[in-house]
Amino acid sequence: MKESKPLVAAVLLLLGPVLSALGPAGVAPRPAMFTQGGPDGYGYLFIDNINETAGPSYTELWQDISTSGTQLAIQGDALWATIQPPMMVRFYGQNWGAAPDPSIPVESPNVGINSNGIVRLLGAGQSNTWGPDWNVALPDTTNPSITDGGFIALFWDDLYGAGANDSAQWQVIGNAPNRRLVIQLTNWDYYIGGGGQVETDMTIQIQISESDDTADSEIYFIYVGVTDAREGGDSATIGIQAPGGTSALQYSFNTANSTTPDTSTTPPTPRVIRFIGPAFVAVSSVTQAGTEPESALQA
Known about the structure:
Shape: globular
Oligomer: single chain
Radius of gyration: 18 Å
Order of helices and strands: HEEHEEEEEEHEEEEEEEEEEH
């Protein structure tokens, strides 16, 4: 049965403040400061973890792959790498990676990662090309060469991963059929005018859940070590866009404090943003309070 997108969105938007006001058992109530948005034209919604009760859990999700993951050769300016994950992800109703059954069609086995904080789900025969340094709002209709396939702006900014401590990795974690594709930019720097980069300790990670072709993958953005305004997203685009730009869901565009941690906790909790496809929405609106489906995805 198809969900009513406006109704489901309304349920989520109403549910969050109620859960926020109640707070976890034994914990004083906290202000309704978390962020929700959508749906876009396809049906994606997002919710972040500024409120722990309604949002995704950093402690359950975070897994550092800086030493366990396969290294990506993108330490520099506007560099691309292409991977072929041994699992399938579904994004805006289309499949990428390796199908669990030969009868399931996939657009392409290829996923592209760019040093400027972009992940692309490449179309059949589509090359992995340079991505623009300067971000724009979503939907992006100005860069068809990079937005014709599935387009994910994890933290689209003029980044520069060439510092001595910078590295990038990818890894598939967990067990089928509940694996996750994890891509991580570790201690990633940003570029400044006049040349060079600012050394930072910000680590940016995306996790994409495995799909069996019945529902879109859930997508998580995680931001660790955010300490200054640039790392906080004041010149970055964060969001997702369908192949061909037919639909998009923007979390933020050049917005201060978009990736800063939740300072109501001690220590502050890193920001997590969760994107949920339409097939997950009805379940998520009921289970956010403690039986989060994401628990089945843990490694």
